[in-house]
Fold this sequence. Notes:
Helix 1 (22-42) crosses helix 2, helix 10 (269-282) packs parallel to helix 11 (298-307) and helix 10 (269-282) crosses helix 13. 38% of the residues lie in helices and 22% in strands. The protein starts with 11 loop residues before the first strand and ends in a 6-residue tail after the last helix. It folds into three domains: 2-162, Alpha-D-Glucose-1,6-Bisphosphate, Chain A, domain 3; 176-381, Alpha-D-Glucose-1,6-Bisphosphate, subunit A, domain 3 (Alpha-D-Glucose-1,6-Bisphosphate, Chain A, domain 3, 3-Layer(aba) Sandwich), CATH 3.40.120; 385-475, 2-Layer Sandwich (TATA-Binding Protein). It is of the alpha/beta class. The chain has helices at residues 22-42, 60-73, 87-96, 129-139, 147-150, 163-172, 175-179, 197-202, 233-242, 269-282, 298-307, 318-327, 352-365, 370-381, 396-408, 458-475; strands spanning 12-15, 47-54, 78-81, 99-105, 114-120, 157-159, 184-188, 208-211, 246-250, 257-260, 266-267, 289-293, 311-314, 330-334, 340-342, 385-392, 413-414, 417-423, 428-432, 437-442, 448-455. The strands form four sheets. Strands 1-5-4-2-3-6 form a six-stranded mixed sheet, sandwiched between helices. Strands 16-21-20-19-18-17 form a six-stranded antiparallel sheet.
Amino acid sequence: xxxxxxxxxxxxxxxxxxxxxxxxxxxxxxxxxxxxxxxxxxxxxxxxxxxxxxxxxxxxxxxxxxxxxxxxxxxxxxxxxxxxxxxxxxxxxxxxxxxxxxxxxxxxxxxxxxxxxxxxxxxxxxxxxxxxxxxxxxxxxxxxxxxxxxxxxxxxxxxxxxxxxxxxxxxxxxxxxxxxxxxxxxxxxxxxxxxxxxxxxxxxxxxxxxxxxxxxxxxxxxxxxxxxxxxxxxxxxxxxxxxxxxxxxxxxxxxxxxxxxxxxxxxxxxxxxxxxxxxxxxxxxxxxxxxxxxxxxxxxxxxxxxxxxxxxxxxxxxxxxxxxxxxxxxxxxxxxxxxxxxxxxxxxxxxxxxxxxxxxxxxxxxxxxxxxxxxxxxxxxxxxxxxxxxxxxxxxxxxxxxxxxxxxxxxxxxxxxxxxxxxxxxxxxxxxxxxxxxxxxxxxxxxxxxxxxxxxxxxxxxxxxxxxxxxxxxxxxxxxx
Length: 481
């Protein structure tokens, strides 16, 4: 089976008990251990230290213990957390303590049947494509893992959640000011490992914080733990019921952020990124370049242009943003799938907990309700609407074939708008004459065809997505299931 192991957008993921087995994870752990040892040989500034974390998924702890055993038996000094922890915490500890790397057993926002293996490099950032390619090469030479390497010999250290990570947030966000706000904030960790962090950081004074879906549920209530609609419907309803200021959500491993305004309306990532950029420039007086993935908003590009900020567009996946954050002065970067990182973050990576608090701070700084700040941005830079649909397909290869067909034979117009340009940075993107667009892209971790659209009205977004689905069925010789 291990010959089929491939790293996707952020790590290797597979279906538990089918692809993601103890045998396969042992092989990946050994290949990663060998790569870490190679890194130590070539970089004497790195410490022989690896952090291993896990989320709340089925067998997460047991998988993490297997990984820790293999790494420790390869003479790496391993710290395994004594409970599930947010992925950003592992990233923080790796960088803060000069570790050679980290591993998190998580499938992030994917369905409950999946688990995953995320690698954090010494910078705290997710492993680059170049780095995971090295591990894939090492996998080819491993037929099986010696059982003695898999034995838990108690030669790794068990540690509690990082106090340093929490202290960093306390020292970066003006929590005292936020705690003094009158009203209620509803927090939704979506049954994931982010439970308790935002609530504890905001509680203690005037502000009331209510948590929903905080317990561990390995099925995530039957929904993907992805902080977007329709998964955030319970949060929308709770915000309205509580007459709350807003709702804040994190995904399964708490590296992604979601939000709901005071009216119970979902705030998509495009708007969150725009709100944070507006805050950093207008209130914090910060500067730097902006990095967006291929599916990000026209709105953010217009904002960057007005502020005279250089903007980079990269393939989808935060690791591509992180590459720029490691080599250039980046103010903020964001992907469509709820992942955001900024100059204020300690690590060049996503952090749903930190960004939840930063977003609340941003909105509070303008003295507006969330919907009012969004209206202000739209009045100043233009109103753009966005949505996405995911079509289940038989295999990732089928999605690739369809996307190539769109690239080589694109439609001349969509819903009366001429196709002005076709881009293929990551998938195939049709750009129309009014700056709106339609993107077809395969998921990097699941057998899904994602169809994205941004337009000048919600009606046009819906029409574009309907066109995309129909176009897929017409051009494909395979059927969505």
